[in-house]
Design goal:
Layout lengths: L1 E5 L10 E5 L8 E11 L1 H8 L13 E9 L11 E4 L10 E5 L4 E2 L6 H21 L7 E4 L7 H10 L3 E6 L2 H10 L3 E4 L5 H8 L5 E6 L3 H10 E9 L13 H5 L4 E3 L3 H4 L3 H16 L7 E6 L3 H9 L6 E5 L1
Parallel strand pairs: 8-9, 8-11, 9-10, 11-12, 12-13, 14-15
Antiparallel strand pairs: 1-2, 3-4, 3-6, 3-15, 4-5, 5-7
Helix pairs in contact: 2-3, 2-9, 5-6
Amino acid sequence: MARAVSIERTGGPEVIAWVDLNLPDPGPGEVRMRHTAVGLNFIDIYHRSGVYPLKLPSGLGTEAVGVIEALGEGVSGVAVGDRVGTFGPALGAYATARNVSAAALLPLPDDVDDTTAAALLLKGCTTEFLVERCAKVQAGQTVLVHAAAGGVGHLLVGWLKAIGATVIGTVGSAEKAAQATGAGADHVILHKSEDVAARVREITGGAGVPVVFDGIGMATWDISLASAAARGLIVSYGNAGGRVTGVDIGSLATKGSLFVTRPTLFHYYATPEERAAGTARLFEMLRNGAIVPEIGQTYPLEDVADAHRALEAGETRGATVLTV
């Protein structure tokens, strides 16, 4: 028996419903995975709310850590009892156990515990590809990170500092400013009381920044445009403040021949080789202290609807882990 979330319609947290399941034996290429910890991510809200359309009914959640309990036909490279993680793309992580494709599994090293892994896999791998393979940030560059105390934001700050970048972070409160500074931000801007673009120009001697990491979306789009240096890159990787729509492409020319990308994790973790290299780099940065998986709060998995409400309201800090 297993318990899992199933949604019949999209909407607010009230659409989250729990069902009891009799899991079949894993099919060819699958394993049965018993979950021990589940990661909460903003993409889960996009799925639940309908921002990213789903075929309904649907499970929710992409990121989970646990133990393999059974192997399907043709599975190799893992064994019953192995500790593994996954961040999708298949949904269904909000469950006590499930059958999952063996190809989606990431072996976990012994020195990374389950809670840390659940807090880090998706956000950490997102950070890895954004910095190193999407923006290709170089030592000595000055970079703007919106929501610098958030789940991905504080990892971006630490990673960027470790590779030699200067980091400007935006946050919404003095408490979050302290968190961003603690993660390594060189300059922190309170976006509710300061003109972010003007401060960025002041810090950079009028030049602007060559890279902007924007996980907010529409609410910060104009700020990102106004903060970027000539021929700079805006990496728009999230929609927490609404989807960026109705963009006049000519504005990229008037703001300095800017580049914009809207990357997705799974396009950068598309092959086994990319997945292995990306996760190896993530665990390397964890071990050397460049990033710290700040777990701001935990919720029992059964209380995931309350966790969604808190995340949407901006009441969480760092990562949220759901305990099974």
